[in-house]
């Protein structure tokens, strides 16, 4: 399960276009729902903002751009 999360994060990070003037290492917690195919369902929910609305929006765009996300190696761990 941890390796699946790493694959998902890596794909999303590769699609994030950071807004200018990002300082430090801000973090946001985003909740997404996936179909078994890896497709992202909307709405995407921000559980904890990074404190920068521009960054939060960039992360959401990156999630949508990354769809479909990687599927777990073991399909039995998948939960929508």
Description:
This protein is an alpha+beta fold and 80 residues long. It is built from two helices and two strands. It has a two-stranded antiparallel ribbon. The longest helix has 14 residues, at 53-66. The protein starts with a helix and ends in a 14-residue tail after the last helix. The model has no long low-confidence stretch (mean pLDDT 92).
Sequence-ordered SSE layout with sheet pairings:
Elements: H1 2-13, E1 29-34, E2 40-48, H2 53-66
Antiparallel strand pairs: 1-2
What keyword list fits this structure?
80 residues, alpha+beta, two-stranded antiparallel sheet
Quick recap:
With 80 residues, the chain is α+β, with helices and mostly antiparallel strands.
Q: Mean pLDDT, rounded to whole units?
A: 92
Q: How much strand content do the residues show?
A: 15-25%
H/E series, N to C? HEEH
Number of strands: 2
Distance from N terminus to C terminus (CA atoms, Å) equals: 14 Å
Alpha carbon gyration radius: 13 Å
Question: Which assembly state applies to the chains in this document?
Answer: single chain
- Count up the helices: 2
- Residues in helix, %: 25-40%
**Tertiary shape:** elongated
pLDDT under 50 segments (min length 5)? none
């Amino acid at each position: 399960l941890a390796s699946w999360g790493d694959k998902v994060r890596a794909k999303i990070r590769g699609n994030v276009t950071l807004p200018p003037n990002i300082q430090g290492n801000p973090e946001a917690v985003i909740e997404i729902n996936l179909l078994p195919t890896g497709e992202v369902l909307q709405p995407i929910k921000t559980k904890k903002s990074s404190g920068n609305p521009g960054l939060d929006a960039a992360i959401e765009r990156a999630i949508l751009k990354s769809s479909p996300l990687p599927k777990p190696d073991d399909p039995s761990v998948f939960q929508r």
